[in-house]
Amino acid sequence: MTTPKFIKIMKTNFFLCVSVVLMLAVIFMWLDRENILVKSAPLDPEVNEMISQARALQKKGELENALITFEKYAMRGHPVAMYHVGRAYARGWGTKPDLDKARHFFLLAASYSFAYRAETAYELGRLYQRAIGPECNKMAIGWFLKSLEWNHFKAAMQLAVHHEKGLGTPQNMAQAIYYYKIAASHGNEQALLKYARVVLTGRYGVTADPEHAYILVNRALDSLLHRARNGSAGSAKQLGRLYRDGELLPLDYEQAKYWLLHAAELGNTGGMHDYARLMLTISEQAADHKEALEWLRRAATKGHGGAMNSLGKFHLTQKYGLEKAGAVAWFKMGIGVSHGAAIEQMAKLYLQGELVAKNIEAALKLLEKGVLLGHSGSERLLKRTQKSLTETPKSS
């Protein structure tokens, strides 16, 4: 299978986003010349049936077998298979998470005109959100804009977040609300809830309208309940969080536990993490703590950085009978998936010489990585550390 020219240009370290402005120009010039360079997806009913069977295996939890089939047909030039391989490597379905491989297959898929092209652009945007480098968020925005242009309205939600937080673009709440409205108008539950919070409180120049806010919440709730009852782990997780937080819905820990556990049992790592943290917060029973720690370990082994960081902190503070020495391994795992809080925690250990040899240089490098990820805790600690290193010691 011939690799398109634009993909060869992209063969830089994914996590550094080198020369991203030039790459963006090349990529989107290529994307806009579809009639010349975009390839048509091969038509093969037999292959389509095999890919459908692999999807069925995936839904049954046979992730490794599904991935074998997807990779087989991805290597033969079928973009739908490339898309599913990319998702498997991005999420660790049937394999260890590998963001470089995920990016490779998504970029291959994006060179075709096929049913999941807009979703592929969205996935690329999500990958670049997780990458390290001052220009990575700009790259993410570029892919989300393409995804939205190709009518994948879920991308509007991500564009709203970038403009709200000023990631890869100047902070602009008017533009953020514009994208939230687009996503909400197409039924995106997260956007409905985000916009409901704005309308409820009247922030950012929007007129407060509690009645309209709860209309938005009920629309989101109806959709989430329908999707969760039909097997959507992500929707179950969102429901659990709504009942857990008690902001837009009445606080209800029993409902929160039910839906978060449901999400966890469906394989959602965020659900595993949130269910575990909730149980550790509201229960004093040792059996519940043991179950919660097991869910955290499962989430961590599937690539959830928050679970890795939580386990590291519990070891560090010797909670739940955990040994302090185990903290380093979990924090290092978190660093491996670019989790900002784990990066900050490991930097603190290097600065203090706790559990590891004191190493200010290693701490500074980690904190710089955290800053590139947009982690505010790493940024604050880096500034404090740099300031302390430059201050002249006071004479006694």
Topology summary:
Layout: H1 5-9, H2 20-32, H3 34-37, E1 39-40, H4 45-59, H5 63-74, H6 79-91, H7 99-110, E2 112-113, H8 117-129, H9 136-149, H10 154-165, H11 173-185, H12 189-201, H13 210-229, H14 233-245, H15 253-265, H16 269-282, H17 286-301, H18 305-316, H19 327-336, H20 340-352, H21 360-372, H22 376-390
Parallel strand pairs: 1-2
Helix pairs in contact: 2-9, 4-5, 5-6, 6-7, 6-8, 7-8, 8-9, 9-10, 10-11, 11-12, 12-13, 13-14, 14-15, 14-16, 15-16, 16-17, 17-18, 18-19, 19-20, 20-21, 20-22, 21-22
Describe it for me?
The N terminus is likely disordered. Strands 1-2 form a two-stranded parallel sheet. With 396 residues, it is mainly alpha-helical. The longest helix is centred in the middle third of the chain and has 20 residues. It has 22 helices and two strands. Helix 6 runs antiparallel to helix 7, helix 11 crosses helix 12 and helix 21 packs antiparallel against helix 22.
